[in-house]
Amino acid sequence: MNRDGDEEQQPAQLALAVQLPDDETFASFYPGDNAQLITALKNAAVGQGDEVIYLWGQPGSGRSHLLHAACAEVNAAGEAATCLPLQSYQRMTPSLLEGMELLPLVCLDNLDAIAGVEEWERAVFNFFNRRRERAGGSLVISAPAPSRNLGLSLPDLASRLDWGVAYQLKTLDDEGKLSALQLRAELRGFKLPTDVGRLLLSRLSRDMSTLLAALDLLDNASFQARRKLSLPFTREILGL
C-alpha cells in the first residue's frame, strides 16, 4: 500500500489504541451543576464545538468519564475519536500523537502527568500546532488544576492551553452523589434504595470511583444471592 493509504488508515488505528469503558457515556453521567460543560462536549462530539476545550476538576470528579463519553458519541456516529490517558505515558511513545490531528475529536486525559517530561511536552506542543494548521475538529484536555498551575516546563505549551475555553468540573454534593449512584444502578437494571445509598456515603470514601466500585460489588453480590439490596445485606457484603 502506498504512503497516502497508510496515512489514511493511521487515525482509525490510533482510535482503536485505547478501549473506552462501555458504561462511561453521557447518559450515565449525572450532570449536577455541569450542564454547560456537558453541552460543550456534546457539541464537540458532533463537530460543532470549540476548537480547544480545557476541563479541570479534582480527582474523582468524573473528568475521564466525560472524555470517554465524548469519544463514544463520535464513535457511535461512525467517526474516529481517541482518548489518550497521559497518566500512562511511560507505557506509550510520543510518536503516538503523529497523525492524530486528522481525527475529528482527540482527548488528552490527565495532562498534568507529563509536566516536566520534555519529550512528551514537546510532542503535545507539536500536536497542537499541527491541529491548528489543519483546522476543524475539537481537542479536549483534562487535568486536576487550571492550566497555569500544572507546572509545565515548556512555556509555549502552557500558552497553547489558553487558546480554548476552560471549564471547571464542579464536584457533586452528597445529594448529587446519591442521585448519580441511583442513576448508575438504574442503568444497570436494579434499584439502589435511598437508605442504602446514604449508608455508602456515610461509611465509605466519598470519591465517586470508590462509591461506584462499591455499587458494582453490591450489584454482583445481590444478583448471585438473588436478594434485593437492603441495609443488612449491604453491611454484610461491605463489612460495614
UniProtKB/TrEMBL annotation:
Query: What sequence ranges are listed for the domain Hda lid?
Result: 174-238
What is the top-level taxon of the source organism? Bacteria
| Pfam families in the record | Hda_lid
Provide the protein name.
DnaA inactivator Hda
Gene symbol of the encoding locus: hda
